[in-house]
Amino acid sequence: MSVKINNLEIENVKRVKAVVIEPTQNGLTILGGNNNQGKTSVLDAIAWALGGNKYKPSNPHREGSVTPPNLRITMSNGLIVERKGKNSSLTVLDPQGNKGGQQLLNSFVEELAIDLPKFMESTSKEKANTLLQIIGIGEELIKLDMEEQAIYNERYQIGRIADQKKKFAEEQIHYHDAPSDLVSTMELIQQQQMILAINGENQRKRENAQRLQTQFDYEAQEIERVKNQLQEMIAKHEVTQNDLSIAKTSAQDLQDQSTAELEHSLQNVEQINLKVRANLDKEKAEQDAENYLNQYKELDEAIKAIREQRMKLLDNAELPLPGLSVNEGELTYNGQGWTDMSGSDQLKVSTAIVRKLKPECGFVLLDKLEQMDMITLNEFSKWLEQEGLQAIATRVSTGEECQIIIEDGYVIKDETAALTQQQAHADSFAPTTKTDTPVPPITPTWKGAAF
C-alpha cells in the first residue's frame, strides 16, 4: 500500500513561521496565498524532511527567528519523521518506537515526487528514457532506435545519391540518330578491305575476259592469214570461244560495291562514338537512379517494420497513463510532444510517471499550480482521487479552490482541518434514534500554530 502524509508541522523554515497541515489523503491539497507568504517554503520543508540533506535549503533558518527550524511529519505507515535542533538532525521513529534513518525513508519516498521540477525540466529524451525504464522495455527500444537510426541514415544517403543520379541522367544529352553500340574503326576497315578484295577479284575476272577477247580476235585473224592451219586453228578457236562464253557469263552480272558509306563512317566515326557514349552514359545514369530508388524503398520498408515493432512493444507495455507513449525517442501524450502539451497535461504526465517509478510513494509535491484554470484544476483533482494519489500543491491565489491559505508564514484558513474536526464532532454526537436532533456543524476557528 502506498505511503502518504497524514500530518505535517513546520516551524521557522525559510518564510514559514508556524504551520500545521493535515493534507487530503486522496486528491489535491492546495496551499494558496499571495507571493512571498511561505507556500513554497512548505514544500521545501517537506522535501528536506523526507529527501535528506541534499534538499536542505541554503538558508533554512527563518530570518529574524531565534528558534531553530523544527519539522515533524507523520506518515500513513506510522512513521514519524523529525528534524529539529541547532543541527536539524534527522529522527525517524516507527510505530514500535524503533529508530531509523534516511535509508528507511528512501525505501518508499521517490526522489522525483519531492522534486518534480527535476523531471519536468529534463529533456524530452530523458523523460522518455525514464518512462521506458519504468515499463521495462528501455533496452529493447534503444536497440530498435539505434537500428532505425542506422537504416535511416543509410536511406538518407541512398536517397541523396538517387536524386543526384536522377538529375545527372536528366542533364545528359541523348542522340536519337546514334546507333546503340560504339562503332569500331577496325571493323569498318576490315569491311572496306573485304569489299576491295571482292572488287579486285571482279577486276581480275574482267581482265581475264578482256584477255580472252583479244586472243579470240587474234586467232580469227590468224585463221584468215594461215589457211593451211585452218582446221587446227578452228578447233583451237572453238575451245577459246567456249572459254570466252563461260567467262562472259561469269562476269556479266557482277556489280561493284561502293565504299562511299564506309569512307563516310570512317571520317565521322569519332562523332558517332561520342553520341553512342553519351547515350550509354545516360542509360547507365538512369539505371543507377532506379537502383538507388529501389534501395531507398527497401530501407523505407525496413524502417516501417522497426516502427511497427516499437509500437507493438509499447502497446503491450503497462504504461502509467492511457495515451502515454514514446515516439522517435521522445515522450508523447495523446500524440503531442512535451512542449506541445498544456501545463496541466505536463503535470498529469509527470505525476503518473513519478508514481510508477515507486508505487510505494503515494504523494507528490507540486509548485506553481496557478498555470491551471479552474476546469483543468478540477479535472486534475478528480484524476488524483481516482488514482489514490495525494498531492500537496501551491497556487498564487486566495480563492475557494485553495483548501489552505498561508499568510506571513501562518495558516489562516484550513478547510482540511475543519472537515476533520467537523466529522469527528458529528461522529461523537451522532443520533442514536430517529427522534434525536443532529448536532449542527462546528465552524472552525484558527488558534495559532503552537506545537
UniProtKB/TrEMBL annotation:
Keywords: Coiled coil. InterPro entries: AAA_GajA/Old/RecF-like, P-loop_NTPase. The keyword Coiled coil applies. It comes from the Bacteria. Residues 195-316 form a coiled coil. Residues 4-309 form the Endonuclease GajA/Old nuclease/RecF-like AAA domain. Pfam families: AAA_15. This is Chromosome segregation protein SMC.
